[in-house]
Design goal:
four-stranded mixed β-sheet, globular, 740 residues, alpha+beta
Amino acid sequence: MATGGKNSHSGSPQYTNRLIHEKSPYLLQHAHNPVNWYPWGQEAFEKAKREDKLIFLSVGYSTCHWCHVMEQESFQNVEIGQILNENFVCIKVDREERPDVDKVYMTFVQATSSGGGWPMSVWLTPDLKPFVGGTYFPPEDGIYQVGFRTVLLRILEQWKRNKTTLLENSQKIMSALLARTDVGVRGEEVPPSSQEVTARCFQQLSESYDEEYGGFSESPKFPTPVNLNFLFSYWALRRSTSEGARALQMALHTLKMMAYGGIHDHIAQGFHRYSTDQRWHVPHFEKMLYDQGQLAAAYAKAFQISGEEFFADVAADILLYVSRDLSDRSGGFYSAEDADSYPSLQSKEKQEGAFCVWTAEEIRWVLPDPVEGIPERKTTADVFMHHYGVKEDGNVNPMKDPHNELKGKNVLIVQYSLELTAARFGLGLEQLKALLAKSREKLYKARGQRPRPHLDTKMLASWNGLMISGFAQSGAILGKKEYVDRAARAASFLQSHMFNASSGKLLRSCYQGQDSSVEQSSVPIHGFLEDYVFVIQALFDLYEASLNSQWLEWAVQLQHKQDDLFWDPKGFAYFSTEAADPSLLLRMKDDQDGAEPSPNSIAVTNLLRAASYTGHKEWVKKAGQILAAFSERLLKIPVVLPEMARASAASHLTLQQVVICGDPSREDTRELLRCVYSTYAPNRVLILADGDSTGFLYRRLPFLSSLEKKDGKATAYLCENFTCSLPITSSQELRRILLP
């Protein structure tokens, strides 16, 4: 229970609860609340049943702004803590550690209220069935919202007076949720028409597209890499059509406007979570690993397609941020940086965005030097402030700053093109680029003197998988071996710290421990479906970038384990969780691509790639069965599953195997590989046939033994269903064929 006696002079905590024994940064943030928190587990469940008490379940994550607010207002309140401790069993869950628990109860909250979000607040019966739920509650009653104290007392009164009715209602709610979340085939369904699905998905994206600023809503605006990946693939299949041209324009314009906007950290690199406005200007300032991984790959592909160095620079910018600020020395990647921080070392309260925003005065102080060689007497600050839209009284719309935290402050946004700024001040283009780059370096150093936001050093298998893909794909496309090496180092980290070789299972999470060691929680959390699919995808991407078949071999091993743990043989597709956990009331299948793609969407492409690397045709069948299971949703509203819509095209067309016969250390082989890496061809896999007949690929794909180098030169073959084209030794000819 919460214990302790505070000494106000020593600063020792007054209360300590069971969360002190956890590893999750989010749970540890609540370890000194006066609330007697339990982690999700049998001890809490048994207490609720034994004492016939309701459960209060609070779910959040360590970089969640409103989670911090509710903790300060309610969970640090001694009187509210007393009400909770005397009448409820209180459970805290980190949604990033336990996405399974979060998904079950968020489905309930979304079905029974006006929306969802975090912190999520749900009241459960002792047998874990939900009956009331919401998100953030203020501590006391206000004009527009009932206070948390009042909600607690009303629920307690209902439990005392109408327990039987509450239990009956909770059972009815669970039955309705079971029916609502059932995803599977009905009878002998076949995969939907790929052409119909992709055309409708494009139409729906096109209708919601913002022509001026890019993106797919007015506000708030999210990066949604799944939409961009779909548009790239749609263009690749319709290059010569007006629809294809529009798809590419939509994706590239969105990526440019995001990179110009305040959602992009122009000083310390990387991208914030989302924009609160239509212009991508004022962000919610937290930075998430899953965004960085997906956006690095998206910007690299934009460069691959367009040839514009601008996109390559943004990809490199993201990877610099992750390498510097989100990397553990063991090789893994941290989860997130918080939005809130102390404005100064003397500050008592954190503010959102404090680490990132600037007053005009601060910029003038850091950049006072006069600009040489121009007619007007201007300082570096004048040029910088003009280019990045800095105003003397701040550039944040008060409507986007409800708590006045950004009053008088500036969120940097590229206001003018380099050409316009250069012309305005009479500067040469290269001179301006150098001036802005040097200014950003100086501001970065100045920003480094501020208190940093909280860093969530939890390492998740799924998000590490997304980041490995970002490094591997960017490394291959940009020709940067150091990125591929960083991806390989992270994959080795996963194999060492988040994989149980004896069981063949992935683990969900691990943590930065004392002395920068890597630690596991006392009861390790096994991987969920999303961990498997994102890691498998990462290993395929890493194989193609490094041509090291050890990653391919591990990916195939994990695919078999994924099938064993999660496949639904009756309704088809994969469940998000294993069947073994009795505390989970629903075994669900995610049916929406969001900030991250849904696991089944990625699984379709993974299965097709795995089949191409192994000849295991059962995986092609499974890919079709997933599409069949989601057929109704794909035909009606494919815009909620753009990644699966994209995968349906790959399933329909059959993946092309690009086989390169040669020695990767020789220039002729490297030239053919550069041709493949520089060409955007989404529905293909790359295979290196190096002549090692005992290797992984040769043992699974016997046809490789029949392919030879022509005239002693590195040779490419394009194969479908293991039937291959005539040999190709010219990179120009290979490019022509790869770009139909």
